[in-house]
Amino acid sequence: MNIPFVDLSIQYKNIKNEIDISIRDVIRKTAFVGGDKNELVARFEKEFASYIGIPYCVTCGNGTDSLEILLTAFSIGAGDEVIVPSHTWISTAEAVNNVGAQPIFIDTLPGFYTIDPSKIEAKITKRTKAIIPVHLYGLPAEMDEIMQVAKKHNLMVIEDCAQAHGATYRGKKVGTIGHAGSFSFYPSKNLGAYGDAGCIVTKNKQLALQCRMIGNHGQLTKYEHKRLGRNSRLDGLQAAILSVKLKYLDQWNVLRKQHADFYTSLLKDIPGIIFPSKPKYSTHVYHVYAIQTKKRDGLKAHLKEKGIETSIHYPEILPSVFFYRDKRNHYPVSESYVPNLLSLPMYAELTEKEIRYVARVIHENPFCP
Questions:
Q1: pLDDT of 35 over the 70 cut
Q2: Which residues pair with 283 in a beta bridge?
Q3: What is the CATH number of the domain that holds 140?
Q4: 248-305 residue pLDDT tens
Q5: Are residues 191 and 124 in the same domain?
Q6: How confident is the model at residue 147 (pLDDT cuts 50, 70, 90)?
Q7: 102-122: pLDDT as tens digits
Q8: What is the count of structural domains for the chain?
Q9: How far apart are CA 180 and CA 204, in angstroms?
Q10: Which domain holds residue 142?
Q11: Across-strand partners of 181?
Q12: How many CB atoms lie within 10 A of CB 333?
């Protein structure tokens, strides 16, 4: 049996008619590029804002752009510092560098893989302007403690929600707790487009206006340039596709949770495997189902031999990446678990038979502890 890490073709087949109609509608209307007159983009922004439970959604080209646009809108740049977790995809830190600021890395919580709020305050300086907590793998960061630190030090909080569409923390959807939220709609996300796409969500009208201007050449109306901007707009095709898929997001997230629980139930008796944490006050939407095992590389090779595709999110902590290469500080928690992480196949359309097969192969693996 061959099981891909993610299979987007099955999802398309299940909603093919709706997707095809939406694409034809874009072509018929020639609504190709996002802007102030693209009704398909405006419709999705309204729908996603309503889904999140927040007044304003501003779409853009991708999730990295959404972080950079927010940092720019908050006037963060050269000489400033932004606090980010040591373990995440590089975009979180890269966006900080791309506006001229410096990312300051903070270690993570064991089992949660999100930023450790208790370690933030020690790294705050006069140059610190913001915190970017990442809701990694689909599990919300510990936002109450983060917001308390931010309030005490007058810092902006930008939630990186790229892996957590629909996740909740103490009854609130991620993206609504900080000063703004950043989402990616990369195709493999829980809510994915058919290309690059992203958005910003916020309760602040003026911030939303600034973000919209920045992403559209500094203008709200064509030729009325109010500030320096950039070209980062959602196109009509992606907006139409996302509008179709948004209707299914909660259903897909429920299936992901069921798959995660099933994986755990089938593998729980294997010694030496650590499973994803699932706090009672948060909903984990399992963009990634990552286990820990000290025999990670052997298990990965064994699964590949049996036709099962896995992934590693991520092979290095960011302070170890060549560009940063932070040798002065240590991040003992993330350094300890990152070499052991292995992400198993996870998508809504996985079948019970497929999950049982993955579990059986892991049980049979001679490299497993």
A1: no
A2: 168
A3: 3.40.640.10
A4: 999 999 999 999 999 999 999 999 899 999 899 999 999 999 999 999 999 999 999 9
A5: yes
A6: very high
A7: 999 999 999 999 999 999 999
A8: 2
A9: 8
A10: 8-106+113-246
A11: 159, 201
A12: 20
d(CA 258, CA 200): 29
Mark which of 196, 222, 246 sits at the end of a domain: 246
pLDDT 10s digits, 167-214: 999 999 999 999 999 999 999 999 999 999 999 999 999 999 999 999
CATH classification of the domain holding 360: 3.90.1150.10
Shared domain for 129 and 189, answered yes or no, is: yes
137: left (phi over 0), alpha (psi -120 to 50) or beta: left
Q: Is 33 helix (H, G, I), strand (E, B) or coil?
A: coil
In one letter, which amino acid is 96? V
181 to 26, 132, 304, 349: CA distances (angstroms): 28, 9, 36, 28
**Which residue type is seen at 235?**
D
CA distance 106 to 19: 41
Q: Does 83 fall in a domain?
A: yes
* The two three-digit tokens of residue 154, written as one number: 């007058």
Which amino acid belongs to residue 3? I
